[in-house]
Amino acid sequence: MTIEPQAIEPQGIDSQASDSPASDSPASDSRASDSRASDSRGSDSRAIDPQGSEPPAVVQPGGNGSAAVAGAVPAAESTTLPVRPLAGAPTRRDLRVFRRDDWLNLCGALASGVSVALLLFGRIAPLSGVLGLIVVAYLAFLAAYALLVRLGGDGPQVRDRIWTVVLYSAAGTLMSGLFLVVGFTVVRGASALHHPNFFTQDLSDAGPLDPLTVGGIEHALVGTLEMITIALVITVPLGLTCAVYLTQVGGFGSRFVRTVVEAMTALPSIVAGLFIYATWILILHFELSGLAAALALSVMMLPIIIRAADVVLRLVPGNLREAAEALGAPRWRTVWHVVLPTARSGLATSVILGTARGIGETSPVLLTAGYTTFMNTDPLHGPQVSLPLATFELVKSPQPTMIARGFATAAFLMSLVVVLFVLARAVGGRAPGQPSSRQVVRNAQRSARDVIRFSRRPAPIALTASRVNSHSADDTSGETREF
Amino acid sequence: MTAAPEPRDGDPTVAVISDGRDPAGVGRPWVPAGRPATPRRLRAKSNAADRVFRGGARASGFTVLVIMLAVGLFLSLRAAEALKAVGFRFVTTQEWQPDTHRFGIAAVLTGTVLIASVAVCFSVPLSTGTALFISEIAPRWMKRALVTLVDLMAAVPSVVYGLWGLFFLQGQVVGLARWLSTWFGWIPIFAVDGADPTNPLATASVYTASTFIAGITVSLMVAPIQCSVMREAFSQAPPGEREGAYALGATRWGMVSAVVLPFGKGGIIGGTMLGLGRALGETIAVYLIISPVFQIQPHILQNGANSVSALIALRYGDASGFGMSALMAAGLALFILTLIVNFTASSIVARSRSGAQSEV
């Protein structure tokens, strides 16, 4: 840590100021008490606030009897600001994090790092390889940068600069990993992607040596859509009601259910596939089909969706629920009209992200769906194939055209995931209780309708004892009218 | 609907409160005399719709519970058959020949743990650095973009990472693997059998399809998960302490190392273990990259590796009834391992200072 020398300066002023009343404290009783007070205040401010922004109230040293009287009036009137010593007026410190010489240091270090690496790899040492070049250049750059910063600063500054650079490069590496993965897939698949037949045909006509103008992945797309639809039909109602049970109903057993669901998020996806394979196909003797794959995906997605929805529902502010209950709403009305609308964007996000996970999962489908190159629109009978499974099977083939098709399938799958993801961001991303603009409009319309409805009702009658009794009798009968 | 109970005779609350004014009449706050007022008992009388709602919610919770328990119980029951046949040898045998009752998870489980360890070694510095960068250094616009990109990275299907590892990374890493084994081959895990560093024309195939390559690929998959858990923890570091460090003259890194890192320690450990849990269960990318061997392969740079999930994907098709039960046992072992790792992770995060309010 560095402490700038300027930071000590105000302390000197402070101690000077608090010294002066102490020096003439024996003058009179009232002054003595005053000075004690100001003295203690002075030392206090020295202890906790080294910047000394507000100097203590000080009685003028040259004061006479009137000053003694002034000691009794509020301190604000008798305060004088200490005169700053003008010798060498302090310049404003430059508080910017990054100054011009920092830029120069960075550029110089970068240049020297690259030069050292090129020199080592090209002339001096028998080294080769792009990866090695980058690593050596980076290390040389770090060393040169540390040296340059050390010339103008001290140890803490060097550490700060070096770590900042390291953090930048960590983020850069991770992001370049993402772009490499995405870019590589798109580039390798581009040759197959720009043939329109890729999206309109299945692979049954495409022999191993056929060009990319024959065959496509329509069958895998249909399979994926059917599987994920069935899986969503199973998981969304079950998952959301289970999350409502965990957060809104609770009671005996909900903790146990939550623990089990949490444990099941650790279930490896291939084990979910193995479970369906061993029960649905080997014991119950159903065939390999899209339905079996959808069941395996459901087993895998259910804990993910429940967990995410549980977290979102728990974020719904308690006072909204309490307000609904205080208005006399039964629990289901509270949930339906208050809790679920409040958490809607978060719930949608959790479902969409669960869908994105399910759509990209290969291993449960690998075990349960079989593999086919034919179009099969019936999820109940016959093998079906999904996009990730098609990718997986295509790249295992030795033919370059098949591998290109595999990459194109992967790129298409990725674009599907990105679309889902953008959708999730557009729908969600708002904290519970922050309505979208359309929700605001709808709420305003609804409350306008309520105003009309209320105005049509007969005016409320003043509460008399008899009315109160009839009301309470009414209430206990267990009926709620308009909420 | 919650209806307030009607006042009954003999109810202490009602009896005492009946006279609201204090007897002395000097305006002091009223103090209950005699027995202290007990909280009222609130009883909600539920109507039919409410009962249906509660019943429905309970039923769905119960259904989920049954499904989840069925998975666990079925796995354990089928696994028990295979475990009974070989007993403790299941943990020590390296081969996988269930039909001759010679099978065990010594090789595949070691392989799984090795791949996950390599993955974590690569992903933790990357994800910690990225999380610190996002929470401490990046300007606001970049912060939002980076958070989105990291989340997107977590959603990229694993088969895409597998393709990248197989077709792109393998070619790039062979040079690094050769260099490591040449200069650091004296460290046992970096040794490569059959490699000849003095022969410049030696084939690179001994360095392909290794634990190392699979681990790097998996590290890219788990880094985003770790990064988001850590970022969550770092961003909760109290601003008062941050400003305190700055006021004492700390540089930014001084502040980070004195405030943010100790505060987010639970997040770092928990996020790491959560990523480890994901890495242990990864199937398709590993299956695409490795060439399976059924012996303990501690040389991470050398061709040949294995993992439990790859074993299941490899052998499920031709498994007999007993072979299926053996695969179930392997799957159960993997499940228990990930379960332990995940629960440890979430309890560490929940107990740490930064994770008290956050959800993993």
What can you see in these coordinates?
Chain B: Keywords: Cell membrane, Membrane, Phosphate transport, Transmembrane, Transmembrane helix, Transport. Chain B: Its main location: membrane. Chain B: This is Phosphate transport system permease protein. The complex is a heterodimer of chains A (about 475) and B (about 350). Mean pLDDT of chain A is about 75; it is low at about 1-75 and about 465-483. Chain A has 19 helices and no strands. Chain A has about 475 residues and is mainly alpha-helical. In chain B, helix 2 crosses helix 13 (about 320-350), helix 4 (about 105-135) runs parallel beside helix 7 (about 210-235) and helix 12 (about 310-315) packs antiparallel against helix 13 (about 320-350). The longest helix of chain B has about 40 residues, at about 50-85. Chain B is flat.
Strand order of the largest sheet of chain B: 1-2
Strand content of chain A: under 5%
Number of helices of chain B: 13
Distance between the termini of chain A: 61 Å
Instruction: Give the helix/strand class of chain A.
Output: mainly alpha
Biggest interface found: A-B, 112 and 107 residues
User: Nearest-angstrom radius of gyration of chain A?
Assistant: 37 Å
Main beta sheet strand tally, sense and closure of chain B: 2 strands, antiparallel
Residues in β-strands, percent of chain B = under 5%
Average pLDDT taken over every residue of chain B:
83
Total beta strands of chain B: 2
Looking at CATH, which topology of the largest domain in chain B would you report? MetI-like fold
- Total beta-strand segments of chain A: 0
The low-confidence runs of chain A, each spanning 5 or more residues with pLDDT under 50, are 1-73, 464-483
Question: Can you tell me the CATH class of the largest domain in chain B?
Answer: Mainly Alpha
Region (Disordered) (chain A): 1-71, 463-483
Subcellular location (chain A): Cell membrane
Transmembrane segments (chain A): 103-124, 130-153, 165-187, 227-247, 259-282, 288-306, 406-428
Domain ABC transmembrane type-1 (chain A): 221-424
